[in-house]
Amino acid sequence: MYGPAEPASRGLPQSKHMGGGGKKKKVFNPAAAAAKAAAEADSAAAAAAPPASTEPSLSKKALKALKKAGELPSTSAVAAASAPVICAVLREFGDADIELAQCCLKRAAELCGEDSSQRGALLDAGLATAAVGAMQAHLLTRRVQLAGCVALGAVAMAPAAGAREAVAETAGGVAAVVAAMRAHDEVAEVQEKCCAALGTLVLGMVRTPSRGGGGPHLVAAVPALCATIAAMRAHAEADGVQRCGCTVLCNLAGSTADGPATVLRLGGAAAAVAAMRAHPTLAVQTQGCGALGNMAGGDAAAQRAVLDAGGAAALVAALRAFPDETGLQRAGRSALANAAWGDAAMRAEVVAAGAEPSWLGDEEGPEGQGQDMPKE
Q1: Which of 252, 157, 240, 144 has the alpha carbon at shortest distance from 191?
Q2: Which is deepest, 17, 66, 70, 368, by most CB within 10 Å?
Q3: What are the residues facing 207 on neighbouring strands?
Q4: Domains of the chain by start residue, with CATH
Q5: How do residues 200-250 score in pLDDT, each as one tens digit?
């Protein structure tokens, strides 16, 4: 399956507390003067160490005292805080202050980028639930929604088993992201960040029925799928929305047996083809190839739907535009092989669209269902 790339992060500079002054005391004793100089040097060294000077001010006891007094932690302290402290601040104060909520969410995403182990620490500390609460409280504040989507997508990639499910469904992460997309549907940046988060989160919505037989299905992910396709249609000119949107289509189409049919029924093939036609960039073309390949990896009806949407021509154009890109070549050829598999008429149609017969490989069966593709 063609998965989303992990977001790059930038470390924020940690604030340093300047050493305090005081009245200068006249010292005539040389020994006392030397002792005072040593003490001042120690004080200056301590002042230059951010963790020691910021973390104690946001202890659980201090947070309770601040809340009781009706005061808020400083954003400068939050910007250097640890995972448990960020989550505690977000739970206690995130719904009351926009700046603090945004600062906590940005710090969480920053920690995930600095050290992948922090994802697990944030997940264990309850970041997902706290982030969803802050996003719900500040639904109409764009910057909170942006920071929240990035944080949810990052923590969902924690190595712990069930991390995606915990963020996506248990904490309500997918619902929060979809709500952000609906509230800010005219803002391309929000749609891009939301689609980027959904590329990871939707995999946590794939369900296995508790009874009645059958394999995993995508019913729970349909709202996210609809929001993604709506974003791609509304922001056809936005390269980032198209790239991240194709990732969502690819991951959902390749995740379950009913994935291709579900994505195709809601217009996924047309959305992917439109993205590839409008954006000849490597990233969009590669993601589009992955999406069409997983859609065509379904049954004969899925193959027919991809071809009817113009998928073969789009795939051929991508392969010819980037002949030296290994990842795209593998994804594109696999997609064409899936579309042509098992039916002489469809194979002829794919060749008529410009595909080289050698691209189709040996017809050993569809390759798209759950295929493992390189990240962009």
Answers
A1: 240
A2: 368
A3: 217
A4: 55-205 (no CATH), 216-376 (1.25.10.10)
A5: 998 877 766 655 555 666 778 899 999 999 999 999 999 999 999 999 999
